[in-house]
Structure formats: C-alpha cells, structure tokens
Amino acid sequence: MAPETSAGLWVDFAPSDAAFEDFGIAHGFHPLHLEDCRTDVQQAKVELGDGYVFVVLKLISLDSDDQLSSTDLDLFLGPDFLVTVHKHAIPPFARANSDEMLYRVLDAVVDSYLPVLDAVEDRVDLLENLVIRRPDQKVLERIADLLTTLLDLRRILANTRRIAMWLQRGDTPLIREELQQFFRDVHDHLDRDLSNAAGERERLKGLLDIYHSSLASRNNEATRILTVMGTVSLPAVVIASFFGMSLQYPGWMKWPGAIFVVIGIIVSVTAGLLIYLKKRGYL
Fold first, then answer.
1. Nearest residue to 48 (alpha-carbon basis) of 159, 175, 156
2. Considering the domain boundaries, does residue 139 fall inside one?
3. What's the whole-model pTM score?
4. pLDDT digit string (tens) for 62-111?
5. Looking at residue 153, which CATH number applies to its domain?
6. Structural domain contains residue 112
7. In angstroms, what CA-CA distances link 168 with 43, 55, 94, 129, 245?
C-alpha cells in the first residue's frame, strides 16, 4: 500500500488479496464490483458507485498464433484515492490527484494498444504476400484467425472509448474540469485506433476475395490444361483404335512398314492440332 500524501493515495491489490476485501468493505464498494474484480471476463466499462467510480480496462497482447489475449485491470476512483486491482504487474505512476492518476493509467493502457495494432498490420502485410504467391488452406485459416482477433480488438477499443467519453463529460465531481480535455485526447486516440482496426479488417476481407479469386483462377487453369491434353490426345486415340480393331484391312496393312505410316498419321494430326490451338491462343 502506498503512503498517503496531499496528492492522493494509490493502493494496488491483487484480486486474491484478503486486504482488498477489507479495504473495499471499509470504503463502501458495491459487492458486485468486488465480485467483478475476482473474475477476468468483464467487458471494459465504467460505473458510478456510492462516492466512487468503478472502471474496468483491458490489457491485451497478441500471441504467435494471431490470438488476442486479455486480462482485466480494475480501478476504483475515490475523492482522495485510486485503487488498482490486477493479476499482472503494471508500471508505477508518480502520485498525483486521484483523477489525474486515473488519467495516467487510462492513457498508458490505450498507448499499449498501438503496438498490438502494428503487429496486426505486419501480419496482414505478410498474408498479402502469401495470398498472391502461395494461397493454401493455412493462409485461409490465418485470415480467419486475424478477422476474429480484429473483431475482439474492436470490441475492446469501442468499450474503452465509451469509458473515455463518459470521463470527459464530467458526469461526476470526482473528475476535475481541467482534466476533461485530457480524457478527450484519450478518446481521440481510441478513435484513431478504431479507424486503423477497421481499415485492417477491410484489408483482410479484400484478401479473402483475392484468395477465392486465386483458387478459381488455379481451378480454371487446371481445367484448361486438362481440356487441351484431352483434345490433343483424342486424334491419337481414335486412329490407334481404328487400326487396332480385329478386322481385315487392305493388303498394305500387312506391309511391315505400315506401323510407321500409322504413327506418322498420328504425329501429323497431333502436330496440326497443336498448331491450330496455338494460333487460337489456347496454348
């Protein structure tokens, strides 16, 4: 627990700390807010309590499998204190007025979203190259994973923006008027992040279109090649079948060189067909 100063009190707890329960009861924290701090599945939100403001922020990271991981950072803003409740370490902040410390925490959390957005952008750039050079099932799965990640990220950004919007309106006397413009700046940063996330989502949708177009193009190319091969081999099949039937042919077929004549006919017809297909642009 940090010492109390004229600037305010910053108290930092883990959700499992027994002292947190005692502190919350002593300061009149609502039981539901205390319960929210023990779970890690809350949406980012802000709620007005009895003499305090309860805020839930999301700390996020992007793993190597393009999955978004998040954990809660819970805050209680009082007239002369700021309580933070979280599982993972956060950097220390210089003590100030409680509302200013809340701003610093919110600003730091929002700043931490930008590297995640940059990482998503880098992975979308990589997928662009893969879709063009080697579109396969794994690329499609990565596109789907990133689309899900961006959906979760946009939800967190949108909820956090609502928090900044509420704080900048000054709906509580716990936020000084001179700080409202700082919360407005945080709101603007979140607007920018949401715009970037929406842009990356549109890029991924475009990659899906390119992926399906590439598959269709490859299928069409395979069909064209098989069609040409079948067309080219058809005369040889017909001629060989005709002369291979168990029928009596004119006497020249008993000539030892007849086989070479048949081969010559097959080669000539096939070559003529290839030349024709080449001129028509099928080859």
1. 175
2. yes
3. 0.74
4. 888 888 999 999 999 999 899 999 887 776 666 788 899 999 999 999 99
5. 1.20.58.340
6. yes
7. 20, 14, 22, 42, 93
